[in-house]
Amino acid sequence: MYHFGDQICLFYLFFFSESSMFVSRRRWILKTCGTTTPLQCLEPLLEMAEKIAGYTDVEELFYSRKNYKRPELQVSPHRAFDEEVALLDSFFDDGRAYCLGSVNRDCWFLYTLSRGGEALQRHFGTLIQQRPVAAIAPPDPDQTIEILMTEMDPQVMAIFTKEDSMNAKEATEKSGIQNILPGMKIDDYLFAPCGYSMNGISKNGYYMTIHITPEREFSYVSFESNVAATNYGDLIARVIETFQPGKFIVTLFANKSSPAFAAARELDRAEEIGEWQRRDIQYCRFQSYDLTYAQYCKFPS
Ligand SMILES: C[S@@+](CC[C@H](N)C(=O)[O-])C[C@H]1O[C@@H](n2cnc3c(N)ncnc32)[C@H](O)[C@@H]1O
């Protein structure tokens, strides 16, 4: 993390696809679900960040989501990715929009901007006597893994109903969620009649979050964490063994300082993970991050 005395004017924004909020000193992560409109909060959020914390610029932004099953049920600006991009472009003149995966099947949309320290330099130019920011400090290690699962096993999904589990704690234990990343302090919630969300944080600053929609017609589970690893094979295997999806997407972001920077190669070698076979893999190199996208199906499929 860059730190120039008490003057910190830039922060990082991440938007994902369920309902959680993580706030740290310079990072704000929001996940929403259903027909909520997360991008509508951009204007008040940017105003609030300046007013309360003195942040005047965004150093990095990641807005991502899987393709919707029923986009026509969404509310503007979330009916189409083009619409979301137009809104984001009205705030940021240097954002980039991507679609990874198969546009006629499973895909994943990403809008990102990464100023690679330029914004920092602009703000702190005089303070750091025009020296490149990179010469002062390399970025902190940073990585994010997401696993987005669909076509879930109905027996596993039954755990996340009030019929099968008395409360969230019982669902967490019965499903084995507490063994995915042991040692996390967990805050979990079981909805009535069904549905489950959990947020976990560890003492060393890692988080994990899981959101579960058990309804058979549109079952969906998302997992996300910033835990550092050089190989995510074991973690992915634990997640998919726990939830038994028919299909899943993995996305992995890692910056150059992160031990996960090499993990893309491990994913490249993982043509099969247990009973799941890879159907797609793509890599992107952004200014500060490498991104790996992979899609797997349970075979035969
Ligand atoms: C995992 S929750 C989504 C996350 C949730 N919005 C949160 O705040 O953590 C989605 C599942 O919960 C169920 N659910 C039940 N009551 C809900 C409510 N009041 N809001 C959102 N989802 C609800 C949905 O039917 C679906 O299966």
Automatic annotation (TrEMBL):
It catalyses: S-adenosyl-L-methionine + H(+) = S-adenosyl 3-(methylsulfanyl)propylamine + CO2. One of its GO terms (biological process) is spermidine biosynthetic process. Pfam families: SAM_decarbox (PF01536). Gene3D superfamilies: S-adenosylmethionine decarboxylase. The active site is at residues 19, 33, 197, 211. The record marks 18-19 as: Cleavage (non-hydrolytic). The modification Pyruvic acid (Ser) is found at residue 19. Belongs to the eukaryotic AdoMetDC family. This is Adenosylmethionine decarboxylase.
